[in-house]
Structure formats: structure tokens, C-alpha cells
Amino acid sequence: MKRIGRLRSLLFAPAVRPDFVVKLAERGADAVVIDCEDATPANAKAEGRSNARRLAPQLTAADCQVMVRVNGQPTKWFLDDIHGGLTAHLTAVVVPKIETIGGLDAVARALDLAGFPDLGVLAGLETALGVADARSLLAHPRVIAGYFGAEDFIADMGGARTHDNQEVLYARSAVALAGRLAGVPVLDQVVTDFRNDERFTREAVEARAMGYAGKLCIHPGQVQIANDSFVPTADEVDRARRLLAAYEKASDAGVAAIDFEGQMVDEPLATQARRVIALGDT
């Protein structure tokens, strides 16, 4: 299976907008997606997959992690997307609305038959069933990453989206936990209010705190915010280094917990500090 790199930001562009697609590599995202699903209308699916197949090699040649989002496995467009929209050298194929192991097995068979046996799946968990079974789905051998899709999830639930995200708190947490247990990176929901930098920043900070690796981006203006939000600041790294130095000195002296700047620090907080330092070094 192909390896996947850092995923702080995953920027989408509609497959039917080649003028947007050709600019993806210069937007600064860790990875980009040519979207043949939601961003491509039903009457333009053939055009979208043709554009994806034609333009993806140009992006990969620019040393960019490139993916194509196909239509969901149960849809009438799925097999045509697999056979007509993918190319060699893609980092992954993004498959939306994954719900069952059987569905993932069908995706794997289709990829193998189309000549892509080493292409991994970035699985979209964006329905009630997909979120409920997220742990087993993300542990599937063909899955190399995943994302939580709040808009489709709430549509499936019959709920309503709010700015404070309380209605998706459980689902976001469940997907983050499932990704950790499966050992694959997961990405947080889109912010459809794409001019609202404050909301995107707040959600990105929340997502990093929950254990997400990055965030889905639907506008180039969101990319730098995501890139900055999923790495520690210089102040965070500095504090983590000082905390760890104090803790390790105390530990060598046989003390298991210390007072560091008014905070009780023991091994779990030291582990968090090591994580901050490691992220700061990447």
C-alpha cells in the first residue's frame, strides 16, 4: 500500500472546474482532492472523471499528494469513476459515505480489477452507520486515512447544524477515537462558511485537541489556517521542553509528580509534552 504523508490540510476542488484544479498544487495544502462527487453535478459526472484523469498527472508532477474523490460505492457512477477517473501515482482514492466492511471490500475489489492494487482508501465517515462502526471501518486493510463529514452526518440524522457543533460532538469524538485505535490519521469536518476564518480557526484548534491530524478545506483561504493550527506554536514547544526537562530531572530523583508553573505534572502530561515536541520537529 502506498504511504501517505502529512495531512494538516486537504484541499478540494470540483472536477468540473479545471481552472481551479490546475491551481491546486500552488495553494500550499499538504494534499489535494479532485472532487468527482458532491462538487460535480449529476449531468457532468463523465466530464468530471475525464478532467480528473487528465489533470491529476500534472499535479503529481508538481510533487503534490493528489487524490480523487469518487462517487460512493452504491451509486451508479462508482465503477465508471474507478475505471475512468483514476491514474497511477495518486496518493489515495477518497471514497465517501463508507458504511460497511462489505462496501469497503467491494471498493478494494474494484480498485484491484481496475489495475490499482496498491492504492489506499481515504474513507469518508459521514452517516449514522458509518460513524457507529467507525472503528472497524478505519481498521480495514485498504484504509490508510479517514475523515468525518458533519454535513452529511446531520442530514442523515435528520438534525440541524449549529455554529457551536454540539450536535456533532459525539460523532467527531467517535471518529477521532476510531482513527487512534485503527492507527490511521483522520481529518475533521469542513467549514462551509468559507469566509469565516474565526470559525475555521476555532474548529481546527478543537480538532487538534481531539486528536485529528488535519482538516478538510473547501477554499484556498482555509489552507494556511489549517497548516498553522495542526502544529504547535514556538511557545508551546518551548513550554513542553521546559516541562519535560523539569519532569525528567524529578523522575531521575525518584519523584513521580511535580509542580510545574502551578500545574501538577506526571507521566500522562509528560507524554503529551513529548508529542508536542515531536510535532514541532516535523
Element layout with pairings:
Elements (H helix, E strand, L loop, with lengths): L8 E6 L3 H4 L9 E5 L9 H17 L3 E5 L8 H7 L7 E4 L5 H13 L6 E6 L2 H5 L1 H5 L4 E6 L1 H8 L11 H14 L3 E3 L8 H14 L3 E4 L5 H7 L4 H19 L5 E3 L2 E3 L1 H14 L2
Helix pairs in contact: 11-12
**Can you summarize the main beta sheet?**
8 strands, parallel, barrel
CATH fold-level topology of the largest domain: TIM Barrel
End-to-end separation: 23 Å
Quaternary arrangement of the chains shown? single chain
Q: Write the element-wise H/E pattern from the N-terminal end onward.
A: EHEHEHEHEHHEHHEHEHHEEH
Low-confidence stretches: none
Helix-strand makeup class? alpha/beta
Strand order of the largest sheet: 1-2-3-4-5-6-7-8
How many beta-strand segments? 10
Radius of gyration: 20 Å
Q: Would you tell me the overall average pLDDT?
A: 96
Give the second-level CATH assignment, the architecture of the largest domain.
Alpha-Beta Barrel
Overall geometric form: elongated
Query: In CATH's first tier, which class of the largest domain applies?
Result: Alpha Beta
